[in-house]
Every structure is written in structure tokens, then in C-alpha cells.
């Protein structure tokens, strides 16, 4: 597959990943290399990655616990200290081998350690391949508020090898699929229709599906790298989805939702808002809801928690001057950013989801 070039990085696919990486490592002559993993990718992915490195280098491995709950400044502090103790200098390289948490936190750490060292992302989850590793967004959560601290700075390169996906449980694969559905909804109805029926797809289709999804995201990011306008399209489903994810992340009586599971709910609810605020048809709303619920079983959200979730909306990064902004759809494949909705409509979107 042809590499996808962004403003400051390039995404490579398949076995070309390792040819490119080995050539790069030989020429770059980094003083040290650190590989950041979590407990899962240490066990299931690290040995595969190391088998692809052709020469001997001074490599250290830092492991953190897996899960969104560990994407914090406190975790960063521990890693910064470890990098310092390992003697990592500004000529060092950081390789982030993992899912979205690892690429988010690893990129942020690399961008801030000694005011910036080079880093490479090697996503091992479907979510990270199609979303988290592309576009240069890095960061950590602030309490239960998603990605509130971070920077936008692209990695040296991104290496996408779907062999890592064979280690993933089904729910993690589905979590990434939510972002792929989102890419179709905001930009490309034909792509949406192609991937909306998983029964007609097999693993051999996955490489092309991932490639097409990255093309959609990269096109948007290339035109608007710092999210001044059209990059906001990528937030469809995320205003309500992030609030739901954040609420479930820290509520002691709730089961934590994966990112894609929360975004799936958010996409249905924001599709409902799209019928009320823009011109999305009721037929398309039903179509979107059916496709998403075929992959993501409905979550029972207690009506008594609606207001608590809505209270989190004010902290969304897209908000300006106290206004809560949504990305909504005028049709499948056509999005509009900076849309607003009344509290009454937002409550009705919860009720719509509950009615399905």
C-alpha cells in the first residue's frame, strides 16, 4: 500500500513498515531508544516488534498499566523520571507501541521531555490505527475530563501492521470500528455503506478498510492541522460520547466504557440532534441507529444520570465562550461544525437512544 503523507509525518503499512523503520534507525543514529508499552502490549506485541529490528541498538522498555484510567499526569511524571534515570537525551528516540492510550500519552511525553524528542507511533489496536495515531493529537486526561492537557505535534512516522490486531479481544476491535463508521458518516457515504454490514466483510478486507479510513482522516487533518475549522468534523459523536465516557470512567457504580462504545452512543444521539437542528432525514437516523446497534449493544443509561452527564458537556474542548458546540450531519457523508442544541433537545437525544 502506498504510504500516506501528512504535513510532518508519513503513515506506512504492512511489511514496508519495518523496511522503512530499519533504514531510519540505521541512518538516524539515536543515542538511546525507549519503547513505551502497557502490560498488554508488553506481553502480546513487544516480541513481534523486536523480531523485526535487524540490528542491535541501545533499547530500554518502559511499561505502564493498561487502561484509560492510567492516562494521567501522574503516569507521565513516572515516565519522565524513568527517562531521566535511563539517561535519555535530546538525541533519543521514543517508540510508542500500543493502543490509543499509549500513543496519546507517549506522544505527549516525547513532546515535553527535554522540550521535545523524536517519537514514532506503532498502533496495536484498531482504534489507534484509524484514529489515535494519526494527526498529532497527544495528551492526558485531567481527572475524568478527557484529553484536557496535551499538544498537537506529529510523530516522525506511523507504522500500521494489522498482524498486531490478532491479539485483540472482540470488544477492542469493535471500539476501533466506531471511529471508522464516524469517518464515513462525516465524509463519505459510499465508505459508510461499504463498512456498515460487517457480515459481508472478512479480515482480508481490513487492511483496505483501515487504509481508506486513514485517508479520510488525513485529508481533513492535512487541510486543518490545528482544528480551526474542518478538523472539528472528526468530533462527531464525541461531544456527548466523551461526556458519557467520562461519567462512566469515574462513577463508582458504573462499568467503564471503552472509547468506541461511548462514541457509538454519542453518534446515535448526535444523529438524532441532526434531525432536529439540521436536515438529516428520519430514514437516515434509523439507518445509522440500526448499523451502530448491530455492533454495539445498547447500554442502559439511568435517566437519573442524564443531568450529571450533561453537566460534563461544559468542559468539552470544542466549547467557546460558554457555548456547547456539536458536529452534526445534514446527511450521511455531510457534516457541519459549531452547531448548538438546547438542553431540551439534548435530553430528548437521551430519550431517543433509550427508546431504541
TrEMBL record:
Gene behind the chain: aroB
Question: Is Lyase among this UniProt entry's keywords?
Answer: yes
Q: Which GO terms describe its cellular component?
A: cytoplasm
Protein name as it appears in the record = 3-dehydroquinate synthase
Q: Which GO terms describe its molecular function?
A: 3-dehydroquinate synthase activity; metal ion binding; nucleotide binding
Look at the named UniProt entry and state the broad enzyme category this protein falls under.
lyase
Query: Which cofactor(s) does the record list?
Result: NAD(+); Co(2+); Zn(2+)
**What biological-process GO terms show up in the record?**
aromatic amino acid family biosynthetic process; chorismate biosynthetic process
Q: What is its EC number?
A: 4.2.3.4
Origin species, per record, is Aquimarina algiphila
Q: Which InterPro entries does this chain map to?
A: Dehydroquinate_synthase (IPR050071), DHQ_synth_AroB (IPR016037), DHQ_synth_fam (IPR030963), DHQS/DOIS_N (IPR030960), DHQS_C (IPR056179)
Annotated 3-dehydroquinate synthase C-terminal domain residues: 176-319
Q: Where is the 3-dehydroquinate synthase N-terminal domain?
A: 62-173
**Would the keyword NAD be found if you checked this record's keyword annotation?**
yes
Q: What Gene3D superfamilies has UniProt attached to this entry?
A: 3.40.50.1970, Dehydroquinate synthase-like - alpha domain
Amino acid at each position: 500500500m502506498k504510504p500516506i503523507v501528512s504535513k510532518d509525518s508519513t503513515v506506512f503499512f504492512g511489511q514496508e513498515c519495518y523496511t522503512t523503520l530499519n533504514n531510519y534507525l540505521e541512518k538516524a543514529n539515536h543515542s538511546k531508544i525507549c519503547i513505551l508499552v502497557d502490560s498488554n502490549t508488553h506481553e502480546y506485541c513487544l516480541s513481534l516488534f523486536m523480531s523485526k529490528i535487524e540490528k542491535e541498538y541501545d533499547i530500554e522498555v518502559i511499561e505502564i498499566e493498561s487502561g484509560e484510567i492510567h492516562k494521567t499526569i501522574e503516569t507521565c511524571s513516572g515516565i519522565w523520571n524513568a527517562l531521566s534515570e535511563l539517561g535519555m537525551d535530546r538525541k533519543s528516540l521514543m517508540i510508542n507501541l500500543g493502543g490509543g492510550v499509549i500513543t496519546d500519552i507517549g506522544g505527549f511525553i516525547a513532546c515535553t521531555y527535554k522540550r521535545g524528542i523524536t517519537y514514532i507511533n506503532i498502533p496495536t489496536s484498531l482504534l489507534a490505527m484509524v484514529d489515535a495515531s494519526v494527526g498529532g493529537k497527544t495528551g492526558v486526561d485531567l481527572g475524568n475530563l478527557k484529553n484536557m492537557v496535551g499538544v498537537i505535534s506529529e510523530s516522525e512516522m506511523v507504522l500500521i501492521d494489522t498482524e498486531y490486531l490478532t491479539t485483540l479481544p472482540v470488544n477492542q476491535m469493535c471500539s476501533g470500528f466506531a471511529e471508522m463508521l464516524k469517518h464515513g458518516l462525516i465524509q463519505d457515504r459510499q465508505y459508510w455503506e461499504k463498512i456498515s454490514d460487517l457480515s459481508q466483510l472478512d479480515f482480508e478486507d481490513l487492511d483496505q478498510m483501515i487504509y481508506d479510513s486513514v485517508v479520510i482522516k488525513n485529508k481533513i487533518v492535512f487541510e486543518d492541522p490545528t482544528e480551526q475549522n474542518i478538523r472539528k468534523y472528526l468530533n462527531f459523536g464525541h461531544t456527548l460520547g466523551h461526556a458519557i465516557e467520562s461519567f462512566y470512567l469515574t462513577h463508582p457504580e458504573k462499568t467503564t466504557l471503552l472509547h468506541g462504545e461511548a462514541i457509538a452512543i454519542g453518534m446515535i444521539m448526535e444523529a438524532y440532534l441532526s434531525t432536529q437542528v439540521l436536515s438529516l432525514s428520519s430514514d437516515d437516523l434509523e439507518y445509522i441507529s440500526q448499523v451502530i446497534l448491530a455492533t454495539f449493544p445498547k447500554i442502559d443509561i439511568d435517566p437519573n444520570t442524564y443531568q450529571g452527564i450533561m453537566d460534563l458537556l461544559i468542559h468539552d474542548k470544542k466549547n467557546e465562550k460558554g457555548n456547547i458546540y456539536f458536529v452534526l450531519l445534514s446527511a450521511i457523508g455531510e457534516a457541519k461544525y459549531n452547531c448548538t442544541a438546547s438542553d431540551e433537545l439534548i435530553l430528548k437525544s437521551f430519550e431517543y437512544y433509550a427508546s431504541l
